[in-house]
Write a structure and sequence with these properties.
Order of helices and strands of chain B: HHEEEEHEEHEHHHEHEEEHHHH
CATH architecture of one domain in chain A: 3-Layer(aba) Sandwich
Structural class of chain B: alpha/beta
Distance between the termini of chain B: 54 Å
Helix content of chain A: 40-55%
Distance between the termini of chain A: 50 Å
Shape of chain B: globular
CATH superfamily of one domain in chain A: P-loop containing nucleotide triphosphate hydrolases
CATH topology of the largest domain in chain B: Rossmann fold
Radius of gyration of chain A: 21 Å
Largest sheet of chain B: 6 strands, mixed
CATH topology of one domain in chain A: Rossmann fold
Number of helices of chain B: 12
Strand content of chain A: 15-25%
Structural class of chain A: alpha/beta
Strand content of chain B: 15-25%
Largest interface: A-B, 35 and 39 residues
Strand order of the largest sheet of chain A: 6-7-8-3-9-10
Number of domains of chain B: 2
CATH class of the largest domain in chain B: Alpha Beta
CATH superfamily of the largest domain in chain B: P-loop containing nucleotide triphosphate hydrolases
Oligomer: heterodimer
Number of helices of chain A: 11
Shape of chain A: globular
Strand order of the largest sheet of chain B: 7-8-9-4-10-11
Radius of gyration of chain B: 21 Å
Amino acid sequence: MSIILDKINYIYSPNTAYEKQALKNISLVIEDGEFIGLIGHTGSGKSTLIQHFNGLVKATSGGVYYNGADIYDTDYNLKELRKKVGLVFQYPEYQLFETTVLKDVQFGPKNLGLTALEVDLRSYEALKQVGIGDDLIDASPFELSGGQKRRVAIAGVLAMKPEVLVLDEPTAGLDPKGRDEILGQIAKIHEERKITVVLVSHSMEDVADYVERIIVMDGGSIAYDDTPRNVFSHYKELEEIGLAAPQVTYAMHALRDKGIPVDVNVTTIEEAKEAVLAWYRKD
Amino acid sequence: MYCKSDFRVLGRKKQFAGKDTIEKMVRSENLIFEYIRRDEEGNVESITKALDDVSITISKGDFVAILGHNGSGKSTLAKHMNALLVPTEGTLFVDGMDTKDEEKIWEIRQAAGMVFQNPDNQIIATVVEEDVGFGPENLGVPTKEIWERVEKSLRAVGMYEYRKHSPNKLSGGQKQRVAIAGIMAMKPQCIVLDEPTAMLDPNGRKEVVRTVRELNQKEGVTVLLITHYMEEVIYADKVIVMDDGKIVMQGTPREIFAQVEKLKSYRMDVPQVTELAYKLKQAGMPLPDGILSIEEFVEAVQACAK
């Protein structure tokens, strides 16, 4: 059970003046149940890459395999694939359209041809998992706050019971608490449903706090693919490609530069706290 | 002339600086704004108080940051600054002009320019310099002066080399800087930026914040920055925190960020290094409150070693 990308190249508007290679020779294996952060500055190819996961965009060359099957086979059922690989786009709240929250979430599973009971079960479960209470299910989606709308949009994808959940910048534009809430819920869903989650983000702090593996994109290629600790140890190289490590990583390096021997490979506030205390208590 | 609320919101130092010496860019008195929802027959269905008794004073040349969670009323307040919205009750003065005075509306909008979140919604021309010239042209500025202003504004935001480019080929941060240049070309005294970096990547965010700080410091433009990013706030002269339509905290960044728990109760955050210092202090290290930068953090930790 995995997604395999084999030497993927993608060229926009080939043979025109606007020709641009968005992805260059990408090979990648995403195993079942992984929690991955995909980072890269604007235009690095992140969004193009995730659209290859469910066949929304077809590679110019190379192959994509889902659970061992070639998705570019002429008789491969792409519709089935899109049920299994759920994509939540940026600003998904702009895609809400129904008159009530519940109806909006039901729309996806209804289209799968499920029984009314199954549709309801899935919708209620999905709304519960994103933290939308019973008091809101009959409200108009347009009466909700930005963070609530976004959670309803994510519930709509969850209700399709995807095996892989890909979220493109799920926290963009949210306040700090809203950011933590959504990420916390995504982590919980990953835990409870044992599904694969790919989180596309600009925020290194968010990624460092939650994921097990980070893939860094630059200029259409993969620059790093490793644990947060190892990726952020390249903080100087990350800066050169328009990214940065979490602020605490810099703080630890600054301490080390002043002769305070702390572990510099920390990526979260908790790790940094332990690192400084370890030094302080020994000192 | 000056009401009590002026004193309530001014920093302690400024209270004694003599009330007449400080020029006010924006001053609101007990501002209330209600969104009124009506049903199909026009009957009032519900009233939401988006701003509730807001009294603020912003002096000329200040860099003021407004924080608050989604729905706290910050954008509603921002829209009052150039009379896109007018108070339901109370008053708001921009450079001494009452925003309710319809005859002054164009003067007010020229005094306070706005930059919004989405760069793609603010650019209208096909060439960067024409986009920047659009504002002054509409003000009836003579052609020669328009081009002088376009050049000056583009240089001020560091986008002069791109003047002949097509805006749609620029990055998000570059587009936002062009949008800011477009406002600068109208020679406003005050720029209000409503989450200008929310849709940008870390580089774009840095570019925009650096540009805004420079305009404030070099050109003396009053800046009102609304943001969710705590790192963008630490350079401000004053931070205002809003919650539920009210102003709940105000002070210097250090005063505000020293109150970690209180900020979190308003759904806000603090910079990572501030939180780290706070947690270390709780764990028994003798660190001061309200550490804002890595440099301050390193100094404070070094002091613990001695």
